[in-house]
């Protein structure tokens, strides 16, 4: 059974003071038995300026630090880009790639997503690939779309590698409620069937207005959740970690 993964992106919501306070709360959560033992994986993706502090704060814990983006090249005349090599050197374990906001606001296409995925892999970072349909459709059509996105993202990767896939339908991002559970389950089943073992060691999580209670509702259709604003309260994040611990069979008071 894939170990549950609970990941949270802070996007650009917090100022520095609040970001550091949040990291302290994550450090405390990382001391819980299921996380400390590695039965539940906990990852936090802060803004770029907070990544060094996150790596330092969480360095002695089992919590993982990720970045929300990276450049497709490791070195060169790329003003404003951030190198995957430098993220790895800081202590990052993973990096988010292909989020709907990067695609729709910043115009990232499949070719750029593939280049960034290759950059992550060659620097030893686990790519957290965000996939999802732009408009609400049938689960079958959504799954086909997501599988194509994953295949295109991995087009430049020539080795089998660990991949985290976040299914995030665009229409559920920022909504008051997540996508309906039966839709998510059907799409995720379709993604697994469509990919087979082609993506290597794959962890499939759901994001898009996700919060406490959803992991239990989705059951074995997903391996975890990718959280946003509904986990900005550390107590809400703790609830999801406890749900994941229960799934892993290691929940202890």
What does this structure look like?
- It is a single chain.
- With 253 residues, this protein is α/β, with parallel strands linked by helices.
- The protein has one domain: Aldolase class I (TIM Barrel, Alpha-Beta Barrel).
- It has ten helices and eight strands.
- Strands 1-2-3-4-5-6-7-8 form an eight-stranded parallel barrel, surrounded by five helices.
- Strand 3, helix 4 (84-90) and strand 4 (94-97) form a beta-alpha-beta unit.
- The longest helix is centred in the middle third of the chain and has 15 residues, at 139-153.
- The chain is globular, with a radius of gyration of 17 Å.
- It starts with a strand and ends in a 5-residue tail after the last helix.
- The relative contact order is 0.16.
Quick synopsis:
Its main location: cytoplasm. By secondary structure, this protein is of the alpha/beta class. It is 40% helix and 16% strand.
Descriptive labels:
TIM_sf, alpha/beta, TIM Barrel, Triosephosphate isomerase, glycolysis, EC 5.3.1.1, 10 helices, 8 strands, single chain, 40% helix, eight-stranded parallel β-barrel, 253 residues, isomerase
Q: Beta-sheet strand percentage? A: 15-25%
Assembly context of the chains:
single chain
One letter per element, helices H and strands E, the order comes to EHHEHEHEHHEHEHEHEH
- Which residues form runs of ≥5 with pLDDT under 50? none
CATH topology: TIM Barrel
CATH-assigned homologous superfamily: Aldolase class I
- Reading side by side through the largest sheet, how are the strands ordered? 1-2-3-4-5-6-7-8
Shape from CA axes?
A: globular
- CATH architecture field: Alpha-Beta Barrel
Subcellular location: Cytoplasm
GO molecular function: isomerase activity
Pathway: Carbohydrate biosynthesis; gluconeogenesis; Carbohydrate degradation; glycolysis; D-glyceraldehyde 3-phosphate from glycerone phosphate: step 1/1
Main location: cytoplasm
